[in-house]
Fold DUF1697 domain-containing protein.
Amino acid sequence: MSEEEKIFVALFSGINVGGNRIVKMAELRSFFEKLGFGDVATYVQSGNAVFRSATGDVATLTKQLEAAFEKKWGFHSRIMVRDLGWFERLVADNPYPEVAGEPTKLHVYALERAPTPEETARLSQKCTGPESFEIRDDVLYLHAPDGLGKSVFANLIPRTLKVPCTARNWRTVQALLELAGRDG
């Protein structure tokens, strides 16, 4: 890795869900490599890619990836690009360390932007079940003690908060951080 290259993670939304919008991870790795990115690795079928780039601007990378992805696959996928420092802060700032060992009960939503106090208050009003959440800048942490599949509140987050987002469980977060920290 050259000194000016940085490590990034791309989180895709809406691919390989329910047998629709299928993108094979080998094809996704090849896609990144053809765009000139280095040390590309993917993790699970939900669309997670770790890569190196000399371009350090996440907004530029996001636009580039979304446009190239849509051109290649013929449909839009919102992509959240974050750098390694963002992932390291996400893990360090976990407000639920007591459940970090139970990765199916802890989820993280990468938000396109930090929500306003009004948006956060609106979401708080909907959180009436066993779940709890905390927002730190552009990250929403969700503790779902019964798991995400049984959480009614989890389904309300995107449409109530109205901030574009994509969710990952804690196991995926840890795996991506490990992939991103590997020696290239």
In short: The chain has a mean pLDDT of 90. The radius of gyration is 16 Å. The helical segments are 25-34, 58-73, 84-92, 117-126, 152-161, 170-181.
